[in-house]
Amino acid sequence: MTYVRLCDLGDVYLCFMVKHADICVDELCNLKSLSAKALERVIRTSESVFLPKGTTVFEENQQLNKLYCIKEGACKFSTMDTSGREHILRFLGKGEIMGKRSLISNKGAKVTATTLTDTELYCLDKNEISDNLRVNTNFCNDLLNAMVQDINLNQNARIAFSPHKGIRERLINLLIYLAEKFGLEANGKLVMRLRREDMASVLGTSPEYIINLLTQFKQKKILTISKGEIVLGDMEKLKTLI
């Protein structure tokens, strides 16, 4: 094991070399389109890094030299407006990749990526991935398909969280989205425990209003709240409220 400094942001994290059996990159079909020799090179130049909740993986406009895949945990993409207000654009979970656009365009990242939970990332060397894209058509197609999926996911999220809908409806959409993307525990508790501030950022409102709406939902028995964590009951009933 080694210690690495991630993205030159100053903090040092524990890092392990990646093993073949560990690699699980859903968006690139688990790298199955690579030859055995190419896969061995990717593994040799890749690392697995553990990052605590709230860690910045990379910042908006930062030049990236890695392709990041979430092994365990979750991250968010966000941007900052001129007034310093954060706007959350997307949530990412296990098997999803960060840094694809920068890999293709060689431009700085369009978003800031931050861990929402304690997270383990695969860090794949950008040069090694780029070399494979140039010589392997199937691998290139896998990446292009992953980017098309991103567009579809972003479009679906825009529809679900459209500002033309009321905050109440959009909050219900967000709860359903979190349940379907990250899952529920056996008792119906959301696996992804978002701060009220993060919910407010996604929906373009204040944390106080989110708290007020969640309290209303609790009173109407749409959900329960246990120690600040949201527990959903009947998902089908919840969907009828949209």
Look at the structure and give the mean pLDDT: 82
Global outline? elongated
Radius of gyration: 19 Å
Number of strands: 12
Largest beta sheet: what is the strand line-up? 1-2-3-10-5-8
Structural class by SSE content: alpha+beta
> How helix-rich are the residues, as a percent range?
25-40%
- Fraction of residues in β-strands: 15-25%
What's the main sheet like? 6 strands, antiparallel
SSE string: EEHEEEEEEHEEHHHHHEEH
Q: What separation lies between the terminal Cα atoms?
A: 49 Å
Task: Quickly list its features.
8 helices, 4-stranded antiparallel sheet, single chain, disordered N terminus, 242 residues, alpha+beta, 12 strands, 38% helix, 6-stranded antiparallel sheet
General description of the model:
The chain has about 240 residues and is α+β, with helices and mostly antiparallel strands. The chain is about 40% helix and about 25% strand. A six-stranded antiparallel β-sheet has the order 1-2-3-10-5-8. A four-stranded antiparallel β-sheet has the order 4-9-6-7. Strands 11-12 form a two-stranded antiparallel sheet. The protein is elongated, with a radius of gyration of 19 Å. The N terminus is likely disordered.
